[in-house]
Design a protein that fits this description.
Radius of gyration: 21 Å
Structural class: mainly alpha
Strand content: under 5%
Shape: elongated
Number of strands: 0
Largest sheet: none
Helix content: 40-55%
Oligomer: single chain
Length: 84
Amino acid sequence: MAQILHKRATTTHAIRAEIQRSTESATTLSRRYGINPKTVRKWRSRDTVEDTRMGPRAPRSTSLTPLEEAAAVTFRQKTLLPPR
């Protein structure tokens, strides 16, 4: 499976794994990969090379109750209307 990176990503899974395995200084690695030394320290402190999830843990609608949202989704599915 291909790795999906957002447009401002500066490291890949392979680079992150190399950072975690390396015993070189953060400055040396940051120069090699063209990244900030804080980024090197961040990836060294993590147990995985996966990005952490950003945003709310349980996304919810700010204007509709869960019952109203379910009704709207069901209506759109039945009528084949677009979300907006």
